[in-house]
Amino acid sequence: MSEPTRPLPVVEREQGGPGQFDQSGSAATYKGLPTVEGAGRTGRFWSARRIPAALVAIVILGGSGILLYDIAAVRAGHSAMQWRRALARELADRPLDDVWVLIGAGVAAALGLWLIVLAATPGLRAVLPMRRTHPDVRAGLHRDAAAMVLRDRAMEVSGVQSVRVRMKRSKAEVRAVSHFRQLDDVRADLDRVIGETVKGLGLTATPGLSVRVARPGKKG
Fold it and tell me: Across-strand partners of 128?
């Protein structure tokens, strides 16, 4: 069994006059839970990288086609294309420390490094992997969808006027505005409701939770 989350409360107050609205804000942060035992740990989804793959394929296909056509034309007795003669002449005449040679090498190295990074990283950072209960089925939840669910549940808490939720890979940030009730009470209810909702999302690792409640800003 996983250990329960432990809140790290941070309460901010203003020394105002007597009354129930003497607080300016109430916040708490909870550490995320590890993967539930037996749930089947799964990593992030890998992106298909369709746009980079399509661009590389188009460039390689176009360049190879032009080069093969020029080689075939030369073998058939025609002269080489002007661009190939100019390129061969430039490569033969320019030294390795030439500015344009260095710029071209830098651009080629940057493109190569970019392709290596794309090939070695999963991508799809906006999709949160869910617990895998069947070996042949994988599921993921988009961050925006998870944030919408948390926002809808938070709006059901008494005293909440508006809510803004930001869902990250390992943390959910909830910023609420309360127009009545003590802020500590509203925040405690939000902690309970949002905490249960986060666990109910079925994610591989339960993200941490940061809840902050404040009063509406003064008009005028």
Answer: 141
Task: Kindly indicate the confidence band of residue 154, based on its pLDDT and cuts at 50, 70 and 90.
Answer: very high
Tokens coding 116: 């290596």
Residue 180 near residue 159 (C-beta atoms within 8 A) = yes
Determine the Cα–Cα distance for residues 212 and 99; give it in Å rounded to an integer. 55
Which among 92-106, 177-191, 205-219 has the top mean pLDDT? 177-191
Q: Which contacts of 161-170 are long-range, i.e. CB under 8 A and separated by 24 or more positions?
A: 161/216, 167/128, 167/143, 167/207, 168/143, 168/207, 169/125, 169/128, 169/207, 170/32, 170/205, 170/207, 170/208
Query: 124 burial class (0-12, 13-18, 19+ CB within 10 angstroms)?
Result: middle
Q: H-helix or E-strand containing 179?
A: none
Q: Cβ distance 10 to 29 under 8 Å?
A: yes
